[in-house]
Amino acid sequence: MPQSADKILDHAPLFREPEYKDMLARKAEFENMPPVEQVTQIADWTKSWDYREKNFARESLSVNPAKACQPLGAVFVASGFERTMSFVHGSQGCVAYYRSHLSRHFKEPSSAVSSSMTEDAAVFGGLNNMVDGLANTYKLYSPKMIAVSTTCMAEVIGDDLNAFIATAKDKESVPADFDVPFAHTPAFVGSHVTGYDNMLKGILDHFWKGKEAKPNGSLNIIPGFDGFAVGNNRELKRVLDLMGVDYTILSDVSDQFDTPSDGEFRMYDGGTPIEATKNAVNASATLSLQEYCTPKTLDYAASFGQKTKSLHYPIGVGGTDDLLSSISELTGKPVPEALELERGRLVDAMADSQSWLHGKTYAIYGDPDFVYGMARFVLETGGEPKHCLATNGSKAWEAQMQALFDSSTFGAGCKAWGGRDLWHMRSLLATEEVDLLIGNSYGKYLERDTKTPLIRLMFPIFDRHHHHRFPVWGYQGGLRVLVTILDKIFDCLDQDTMDPGVTDYSFDLTR
Amino acid sequence: MSLDEGTINDPTLPERLIAEVLEAYPDKSRKRRQKHLSVSTTPDAEEKAEGALSECDVKSNVKSIPGVMTIRGCAYAGSKGVVWGPVKDMVHISHGPVGCGQYSWSQRRNYYIGNTGVDSFVTMQFTSDFQERDIVFGGDKKLEKIIDEIDELFPLAKGISIQSECPIGLIGDDIEAVSRKKKKETGKTIVPVRCEGFRGVSQSLGHHIANDAIRDWVFNQDGSEDKFETTPYDVNVIGDYNIGGDAWSSRILLEEIGLRVVGNWSGDATLAEMERAPKAKLNLIHCYRSMNYICRYMEEKYNIPWVEYNFFGPSQIAASLRKIAALFDETIQANAERVIAKYQPLVDAILAKYKPRLEGKTVMLYVGGLRPRHVVNAYDDLGMVITGTGYEFAHSDDYQRTGHYVREGTLIYDDVTGYELERFIEGMRPDLVGSGIKEKYPVQKMGIPFRQMHSWDYSGPYHGYDGFAIFARDMDLAINNPVWGLFKAPWKKEAA
Q: How confident is the model at residue B1, as a pLDDT?
């Protein structure tokens, strides 16, 4: 009997006990699985160049894509405004999925409601669901704002949010002057970064429409969809305060996804105040930290005469230099000495460790801006970002990536893959090996199949805890990214050299 | 809100809490919600004679109210996420936009043995990733192409299921025609499943539709099932999804009493195990809610009886082993007694270790499927008391069965809303809450220990004797961790 009260075995060791091994062997007789030789043969073939070519010839099937759908981005961005409840119009299962997905990453509550449309609403439209739903949400959850987005069901049947919300207000579901911004967020267009853009533009349009901007010298900053938002936004605010900038972060989820444990459940916490959102129309400029999260929103801001600019996820020295220079350029505030010191410390750390980083090869995947920023930092360390992949990356993104590769001698032989998925990445890693893989938790399957060590720096991270509480942006964040990469390199090296009397001649105390 | 102890011994508390939460709703919704909330009452004489402890009478299996934060999922979640997803040697296509497959990817912890991407595909996300043109022009041609691509790149896949997302049924695609055509061309099993998320009111209809798809597209397929020597002891385990290895810690007991498990549905299952199911002598059903349909069909069509069992906690395990054995000969019955006796010392040692730490602790549950009732006795074995329970997607027969598990005065909530659950937990202040990922963090922030009872909170198995040891250990570590004592800063404690 494998189990005992003294030493309770969890699933991992329990099923390796002889009783279970025997049982599983007996079960195999009933399974009709293919013979071992055939499995080995096919397994080897899936890692060949022949397979890679067939795999890349795929036109219709998507396998392990690295992207989610629009409403996830809409729910994420809405949760960064003061006491705002996301109301997603359409089927209810979708909302259960967004909430679970965000909670699994942040280890935090994630609140959102659905209009719970079913078959009758598919036939007659979801107006009644909107009318009843807004009334219930307003009464039960006391929001200051309800941000409406859509699932693909509501989009396919063509529900008109503008008209529906107006009708709901006529029927007194919510007061006539209550804020109900909306955005259509079809899941069959773009990805979660598109949904972020659409919802943010919807919220700004709700508050800014018809207003005349009176430029006041302040700066709007849009962080974009970011799994590290808790740490990053706080770091961003610290930097902006050091520079003495008057700013508004348009959607700040850092408190919403990092509430304390003190006996009280806060359904809402922090977020960009409604008043600040209204006043943001008067900013002199809007700076996006992720270009692909904000094309429509920036156009909209520009239509009010604001200067606009977008970056690619400010990681590392050059990425942070661009961030600070951009803030300086848009606000006229100089970069203070304190930040120059921080820059010097990051460069100092990189110099100390350069011998371990120089020439290392990487595969990087994730959202387009993250992949760009990450690859740029890798190039700064003397690394080579060989395979860069974004399932939601476009041809334009591929061209930007190529320009980045061309800007460094370490970019030779590097390639960007837009619109590809993690099954493509498997072929790349199997046929053209690299030293390290940078991605999210889904990358663990690639690590298993190709033995490429995985570094988790991208949303979602389900199987490691609390990384998102620390920044990866700015010079301070750069230090954290640097240490994360170095730790992986050293841990792998130690693992590889700890066989006593065999490999441990290289098990060096000082590295 | 405070950390003070609630008045758990106040018998009027559940009724008062129901009245309080209903106050918060607009009139129309209040009328609908009040039918879903109740306190279990004294059973009538007939029910008592059948062993009922209480009567749990609430309205169930109707549409959720918009805007209230239902915890329910959809039919796709019931079919792909629950029934089909675990079948390991088939590729399951999430047919439609990318999100549904992405959010459900690898989240149900259906353990399996296999070479992923080569002969097994459970923890992969296959999707047709619908774009606008697919919505406008239809997705059937793309689906055909996808099936061809799967056939080329994953030659060892035994079959394909097509799990419909919302748009499929709305744009009029004919996935059945594509399936028939492709089945002819590839010679493989291809199963279209009409589990669009807007169908029905919860996951539940998805289970039913998935069961029907097995009936229509797996059974009776032109004699393609394997030649199979039967024995008088052949059983199928139905409705065990092998979460954290549950089906394995169950199977080992069934084998020990001398039965031969010829199919496990659907955790760690292969297509062959499903195809041959009609050759078994008996269907053993664990999750009644999600798979009773196919059992009833096999009973009607193939004359295979079915019996419900419960492998949570030693008292139910022993009762279930005896109940199952009683349907076989004396050898099996003697084996059952021998197995129960064999594990008794383990049970005694677990209870000796954990019962003193857990006795008298109160628990509130809100889960799906069978668990709101099936796990009650496992807690009971540890001396813990269920003070509230409810189902995401039960039907009236589930609530009927629940009366056999919970005592009078238990708070019962059907399709509970986020608002209600928070208020109930705050009012009752149980020592432990068992629910899902969306509920975990709000509850913990209130200072109340929590275990996810869908995924076993990344632990398990919880089935069988080996699983009970882990279950007891997990409940103890949740409740008796020192972190719950750190919530209040010392200066605040003094002030209070």
A: 36
In this prediction the ipTM stands at 0.98
B331: three-class secondary structure by DSSP: helix
CATH architecture of the domain B76-224 equals: 3-Layer(aba) Sandwich (3.40)
What does pLDDT average to over chain A? 98
Of A363, A458, A357, give the one whose Cα is nearest residue A415.
A363
Superfamily of domain B5-67+359-458: Nitrogenase molybdenum iron protein domain (3.40.50.1980)
> What distance in Å separates the CA atoms of residue A51 and residue A70, rounded to the nearest whole number?
32
- Topology match between the domains B76-224 and B228-338: yes
Interval A36-57: pLDDT, tens: 999 999 999 999 999 999 999 9
Mean pLDDT (chain B) is 95
Q: Which residues contact B395 (CB under 8 A, 6 or more apart)?
A: B60, B61, B204, B289
Asked if residue B322 lies in contact with residue B257, where contact means CB atoms within 8 angstroms, the answer is: no
pLDDT higher than 60, residue B495: no
Q: How far is CA B162 from CA A33, A65, B127, B208, in A?
A: 21, 18, 9, 15
Pick the closest to residue B398 from B376, B371, B380, B434 (CA basis).
B371
Q: Provide the pLDDT for residue B316.
A: 98
Distance CA B422, CA B426 (A): 6
Q: What is the pLDDT of residue B226?
A: 63
Where do the structural domains in chain B lie, given as residue ranges? 5-67+359-458, 76-224, 228-338
Instruction: Kindly calculate the radius of gyration of chain B based on its CA atoms and give it in whole angstroms.
Output: 23
Q: Is the pLDDT of residue B8 over 90?
A: no
Question: CATH topology for B228-338?
Answer: Rossmann fold (3.40.50)
**Chain B residues close to A5, C-beta within 8 Å:** 346, 349-350, 352-353, 469
d(CA A330, CA A308): 9
| Closest Cβ opposite residue B245 in set A15, A87, A112 | A15
Main-chain dihedrals φ then ψ at residue B127, nearest 5 degrees: -145, 155
The share of chain B scoring above pLDDT 70, in percent, equals 96
139-178 in B: which are within 8 Å (CB) of A?
Answer: 142-143, 145-146, 149-150, 152-153, 155-156, 158, 165-167, 169-171
Collect all residues with Cβ–Cβ distance below 8 Å to A21 and sequence separation of at least 6.
A15
List, as one string, the DSSP characters of B149-166: HHHHH-TT--EEEEEE-H
What are the strands of the beta sheet with B385-389, ordered from one edge?
B37-39, B411-413, B385-389, B362-365, B432-435, B450-452
**Alpha-carbon distances, residue B213 vs A113, A240, B161, B291 (angstroms):** 31, 58, 9, 12
Q: Which of A88, A94, A148, A152 is the catalytic position? A: A152
* A312 three-state secondary structure: strand
Are the Cβ atoms of A43 and B115 closer than 8 angstroms? yes
DSSP H or E run through A235? helix A229-243
